[in-house]
Amino acid sequence: MKLTDPTSDAVLKRLRRARGQLDGVITMIENDRECRDIVTQLAAVSRALDRAGVKAISGGMRDCLNAEDGDVPEDWEDEMEKLFLSLA
């Protein structure tokens, strides 16, 4: 199953935001910022990545639910479950 354009755009937007946050963390480390500030920003990066993953999975689920009966992969429920578990 592939991401549809709207889902792909949303996931890319979240990933770009996470990349910007990660660049910020690198700069913080290079500038000897406080550990607490660095860890806080790392947590934000992690949440952003998690949100991107959830968006990708939810988009896939929506596509499966909106697909014609013949277009839905037989094992889509198992596939979605595995994807959700991989984020947990």
Automatic annotation (TrEMBL):
Gene3D superfamilies: Metal-sensitive repressor, helix protomer. Keywords: Copper. GO terms for biological process: negative regulation of DNA-templated transcription. It comes from the Bacteria. Signal peptide: none annotated. GO terms for molecular function: DNA binding; metal ion binding. The keyword Repeat does not apply. InterPro entries: Metal_Tscrpt_repr, Metal_Tscrpt_repr_sf. PANTHER family: TRANSCRIPTIONAL REPRESSOR FRMR, TRANSCRIPTIONAL REPRESSOR FRMR-RELATED. Belongs to the CsoR family. This is Uncharacterized protein. It comes from Corynebacterium glyciniphilum AJ 3170.
